[in-house]
């Protein structure tokens, strides 16, 4: 899938909705992401939030504090727009511009680069986010989607 395939990105978000999202769910999803990243030797940091509370964080070998800064910037995009950071960036590109040029948001605080995905719960909407940083943005996004697919059985 192309990163600019907006319908496919929107379909992922419609499909990857949880029935609930508990502390145990955050641990299980985060642990699954760590397992997938370790299998691939991926030098990533992983963050899972419900609202303002960080429920899970891991930094694997090869990641750095820069990855945590990227996590914060990508997560803020999900919090503001209610959809994945890759989808937000793709929508701006589809309009012939970039997020940085047209959003009017501080690029030191917001980054519409792939890797942050909304955690949505049936009947409640978006309640949090799951974010990966350390790979090229499309790979960060794909890792999160793969983990959510396994986690939800979708």
From TrEMBL:
SUPFAM superfamilies: GlcG-like. It comes from the Bacteria. InterPro entries: PduO/GlcC-like (IPR005624), PduO/GlcC-like_sf (IPR038084), YBR137W-like (IPR010371). Belongs to the UPF0303 family. This is UPF0303 protein QIS96_11295. It comes from Streptomyces cavernicola.
